[in-house]
Automatic annotation (TrEMBL):
This is Armadillo repeat-containing protein gudu. InterPro entries: ARM-like (IPR011989), ARM-type_fold (IPR016024), Armadillo (IPR000225). SUPFAM superfamilies: ARM repeat. PROSITE patterns: ARM_REPEAT. Residues 1-24 have a biased composition (Basic and acidic residues). ARM repeats lie at residues 120-162, 161-189, 284-328, 497-539. The lineage of its organism: Eukaryota, Metazoa, Ecdysozoa, Arthropoda, Hexapoda. Residues 1-31, 43-70 are annotated as: Disordered. Pfam families: Arm.
Amino acid sequence: MDVVEAKEVCKDGEVRKKTTEPRSTEATSAALLGPRVVVITELEDDSDSSSKAESSEEEDDSRWTEVGKGSDVPTEYWHIQKLVKYMKAGNQTATIVALCCLKDQTLTTEISQIAIRDIGGLEVLVNLLETEDLKCKLGALSVLSQISVNTEIRRTITDLGGVPLLVEILSHPARDLQILAAETIANIAKVDLLDVSRTALMTPMDDLQPEEKQQVLVAKAGAEALWSLSQSTKNKEAMKRAGSMRLLANLIKSIHLDVVIPIMGTIQQCASESKYQLGIRTEGMIADLVRHLSTVTTRTDLKKHCASAIFRCAEDEQTRDLVRQSGGLDPLVKLAKDPAVQLDKPLLAAVTGAIWKCAISPANVRRFDDLNIMPILVGLLKDENEEVLTNVVGGLAECCKHPENRTVLRLNDGIPPLVMLLNGTNAPLLQNVALVLGECAHEMESMEIIDKLDGVRLIWSLLKNPDTLVQANAAWALCPCIQNAKDSGEMVRSFVGGLELIVSLLRSEDIKVLACVCAAIAKIALDRENLAVVTDHGVVPMLAQLVITVPLPVPSSLLTAPLPHNTCLLQPADSPFTSQYLSPPAC
């Protein structure tokens, strides 16, 4: 005979507990068929001595277990357990209905989470992730995404092998599934899945103990999950707050490529964020990036992620210095001239991008010169991939800030392909082409080649490009072209509509465009005939207005524009210009 605890559901929806009279198992089964009474659980009639023994053994258990076994529990506990029982019935329709009802419960409360755990609901939910039925999978994820905020549940899901299943769902075409899986992984990732011992990371897989192998496999799955999550800016911030940098710094040292590659993918995804750039530098990861970049392996994706991470981090001066000090410039040059790498366009783009950003530092350029980088970059100008070309030309622009490299570029016939690139439409590429030709124009021999190839006209035509940085760089490049060209005054006047075009850019709202255009006009106005033309186009009041309205600090180029010195040469004493712009203020 058993004592049965039950609930009675009234017509008004109120739920009341009641204890029935002791009855047999047959009576209990009969009661289950009744419309109002549902049996929830059975309590064994154990002796007092056994109860005391059990309680003493469970004193060190978690509070969760104590709550689950307590007699005074809320009705929600039993209601949720009843739903889980229906979910475990095996009938697909009953499972879906139970999941829908369970999802509507307040699952963020501790008692609800305990109820699911105590009756084995976590095992069922994890198993449902493997089903082919979309509704079952969606319902299970809806529940898991809410209850996985609990530390114990996160650990249990991990132990049940739920992480690989969640990672697999991330590639499912259904967006709802992807979102819920990502949310669940984000919660589970707070468990130190990635906190693997250094011994396990540095020991070959065949030499690991079974438990250590499991740690590495879990770390691999967790790393892949982080990689997927890191594509979202919001997730990057959450990962940073959760202390991901320390874990990434530990895992990147591993010899297991299956762990390192997703970690490296995560790092290169996050490296565009300034906070991550600081963390990568301070956690000493630059040396690890260089080490993996230099490793002899057939896994080109590893090298691509390393080079891409350097490319994104090297905006920072200290990082560029660390790359050089770690010996990272040598493998970059070695990869750039490797014929096999030149066929792998994503890898080549990452490598040339890293070279470009590292070349911003003069000390790195000197090392690149020792490695004879200029002929390699000039050879890559024949590549048809625009991303590769953008990075190659950017690297040339930084290297050509050093006069000796302008000569090397010219002697290696690098100017003609650069001028040809001015006919393209890719804005980032045009920005860099204008820069490198502007640097080359400081050398008289190179300027002659640019002029002969009609390069000045092509640079001038970039002023019509809608991209403001293209406009600014083109105007900046025109300054040395005008200064060093033979008979520059006549050359400028030969461009039909050219002077009107450059004056019209003084209406731009971009400060950099204004500064570069003013610098170019300062060079143009040195020729009296050109000065007269730009004056007719209204350059004087436009420049004067800029002096009044441009916020401090005023770009130095505005101060070099022909106001008032050159312009005053053409103005009579009683002209509107003199009275409006040069008259002293009234006292």
